[in-house]
Write a structure and sequence with these properties.
By secondary structure, the protein is α/β, with parallel strands linked by helices. It is built from seven helices and seven strands. Helix 4 links the parallel strand 2 and strand 3. The chain starts with a helix and ends with a strand.
Length: about 200
Amino acid sequence: AEFKAKGGTVVAHSEYQKTQTSDWKSILLNFKNGGAQGVYVGGTDDQNICIPRKQMKDLGWDVPYGGGDGIETTDCIDQASGNESGVYATSAGADATKVQGAASTIASFRKAFPGPNDFGGYTMQAYDAANALMDAIGRAINDANGSMPTREQVRAEMAKTTGFKGVIGTYNFNAQGDTDLKIVSIYEVTQASDPSQTTGV
């Protein structure tokens, strides 16, 4: 609805079964023939959602291919093999590796959790959320004179959180519990000069 309100037009919409692993060309041709200037997918790489990007090249159709954080993965790039450039993914938060002052916390985290998949797009957001919650629990314990606080006391303190300084930034929360630190990162897959090296930027 928001896309349409801003002047966008949805040419066509299609769904598929997760078990479908081979041919999206009829769906893509429907989009192409309808005049679509881009494809937006809702799904994740484990649902084979990026294989259609590869097949777009077979159809000679070169338009942007976008989606949410479910395609912000190396598996998506692998699935789109041969047509990786022009894939865009959004992530609800800042790229912590680009936030000034986050480097030492990230380095400490990676030292404690060295696995290749331990650090991800939402790791530092989760770190900040846990610390904000612990801070609220601490205040609730004080309100309860050192006793175990009630769930309601913790909830009330969390709602009062203002000016909480995290790794990503400073957090405040509105009456609905949403943060005012509204950052969306957009990632684009670009092809390096060496065709064997594809990088996300």
